[in-house]
């Protein structure tokens, strides 16, 4: 680790301290990515194109147009089954010319004469200079959260360890609040929301019909105010959309000029 300074020699003693929570979080996400990428190759021959580690979102881009719901469930199961095996993760260095003796997931293009290797026992061997947990059991769990299309590839989002736990806690709180709001069990929350959506669509349909009837009635009243082909009217407490609906009704009469104002 290098610290760049403005002047030399240093005149002050400096104490450096690792932010352990942040470091362990990165260790969990990075080791989880190695495990996930390796098992995607073994199971579906899907290769990882890139890895993105943010403060909240973690994702890998995969060389496949899409993943089915069934595939995602299967991937999540085999990854977590592997975590329960609690295999050790070893780090060691090898000379560049000895890389060909290793079953690397991806052969790196490096100029370094010595290469650092991260190996999940019996699962993955990768050249990597990142921080990792000592055993995959320290990942706790991996939760796949969503996928997005990304220039012909699939971006797979996931959370490992404490991030996955925090995500589950947040999701549980949301479901519990919805359950209380609808006075139902959490298993029936989705059903209640679907029922509300159906009722909302029906009410919206009825509302639109009433609006059209009201517009037709008002249009007939305004027709009587026309001076030749010209009609002016000032509306109070009406929305622009409502006036537009009324305008469509009135313009069905040929050679009509309208001038409306709103307040």
Shape: elongated
The CATH architecture of the largest domain comes to 2-Layer Sandwich
Q: Termini separation (Å)? A: 67 Å
Query: Got a strand count?
Result: 9
- Supply the CATH class of the largest domain: Alpha Beta
Instruction: Provide the residue-averaged pLDDT.
Output: 90
Q: Report the CATH superfamily of the largest domain.
A: Threonyl-trna Synthetase, Chain A, domain 2
Helix content: 40-55%
Catalogue the unreliable spans. Answer: none
> How many domain regions?
2
- Percent of residues in β-strands: 15-25%
What can you tell me about this protein's structure?
This protein is an alpha+beta fold. It folds into two domains: 20-182, Threonyl-trna Synthetase, Chain A, domain 2 (Threonyl-tRNA Synthetase, Chain A, domain 2), CATH 3.30.980; 190-262, no CATH class. It is 42% helix and 22% strand. The strands form three sheets. The protein has a four-stranded antiparallel beta sheet. Strands 3-4-5 form a three-stranded antiparallel beta sheet. A two-stranded parallel ribbon has the order 8-9. α5 (240-250) links the parallel β8 and β9. The N and C termini lie far apart (67 Å).
Notable characteristics:
263 residues; alpha+beta; Threonyl-tRNA Synthetase, Chain A, domain 2; 2 domains; four-stranded antiparallel β-sheet; three-stranded antiparallel β-sheet; 42% helix; 22% strand; elongated
């Amino acid at each position: 680790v290098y610290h760049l300074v403005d002047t030399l020699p240093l005149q002050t003693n400096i104490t450096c301290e690792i932010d352990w929570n942040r470091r362990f979080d990165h260790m969990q996400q990075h080791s989880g990515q190695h495990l996930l990428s390796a098992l995607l190759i073994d199971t579906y021959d899907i290769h990882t194109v890139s890895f993105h580690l943010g403060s909240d979102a973690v994702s890998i881009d995969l060389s496949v147009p899409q993943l089915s719901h069934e595939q995602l469930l299967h991937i999540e199961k085999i990854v977590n089954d592997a975590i329960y095996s609690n295999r050790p993760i070893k780090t060691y260095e090898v000379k560049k010319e000895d890389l060909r003796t290793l079953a690397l997931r991806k052969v790196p293009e490096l100029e370094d004469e010595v290469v650092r290797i991260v190996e999940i026992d019996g699962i993955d061997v990768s050249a990597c200079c990142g921080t990792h947990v000592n055993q995959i059991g320290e990942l706790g769990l991996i939760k796949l959260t969503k996928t997005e299309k990304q220039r012909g590839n699939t971006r797979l989002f996931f959370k490992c360890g404490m991030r996955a736990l925090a995500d589950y806690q947040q999701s549980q709180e949301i479901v519990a609040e919805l359950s209380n709001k609808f006075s139902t069990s959490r298993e029936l929350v989705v059903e209640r929301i679907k029922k509300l959506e159906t009722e909302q669509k029906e009410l919206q349909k009825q509302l639109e019909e009433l609006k059209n009837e009201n517009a037709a009635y008002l249009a007939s009243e305004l027709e009587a105010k026309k001076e030749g082909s010209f009609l002016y009217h000032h509306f109070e407490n009406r929305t622009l959309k409502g006036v537009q609906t009324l305008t469509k009704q009135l313009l069905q009469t040929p050679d009509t000029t309208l001038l409306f104002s709103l307040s």
